[in-house]
Structure prediction request, 261 residues.
Amino acid sequence: MKKSRWIGISIFLVLLIAWGFFYSRCGGVTVEFFPERTFDVFPLNDSAVGGFSTSEVQLTDTLLISSVVIHSGKAFTYAGVGFNLKSKDKRPGSVFDLTKFDSLEIHVASKRMNSMKLRILTDDPVYTRNGDYATLRVLEKEIPSAPYLLMGGSKERFAVSKFSLSEFRVPEWWLSQQGLEEDDGKTYLNRGSFFEIVSGGSTLRGIPDEMEIRYVRLWGANEDQKKTMHIVLGAILFALVLFLVCSAKSCRRENAKKLDA
Prediction:
């Protein structure tokens, strides 16, 4: 009996060691937009919604530059650079699921503007019409930039922002455009179409500006996988306790038989 008990304990020890190995490799998920070029990059302006702003994009191995000129003529003007989330691995595909990510990190600088806007555009099953860009749901987050003309002329300075995706908000102008009086709380991050970096509210009209992007990535802790691993650990420990209890009872019965004999 002692031999079988030690064999059983050894099996559980092996299971626990294996669990620890797989749990240590149960890291988070991450996707890098730049400098790794996971998605297609394109110059972005407000012409799709009737604006007249312009954008030109230059790409190097370490820097993504968008030269923009913001022109008046629309209430919400913008220009910058976009990432096509439907082009993962350089192949046209379906919408991109952002729900497995919870945080974003970005390093940016600018020529004059004090801030930039990050936008996630999602395919809203109610308001988006046949994938029409102008009807995609917009989620926005404004971040500080590092305007080198206003900071001593050094182009080596970058503003680093790290924050949760939950900080993105549907702007009031989009709600008004759809006839909604208040935010309905929906994001449809599981139906991502585009990620955009555009000019902020401080951008001067008619004056050329530059947006420099050095690093952009999304990451998530992969909580679902960790929860599964915790459930597996609980099952192993429960089985171990059950085995030890049954083994102890069996030992007591054997001892009782020896005493009776």
User: Anything to note?
Assistant: The radius of gyration is 28 Å.
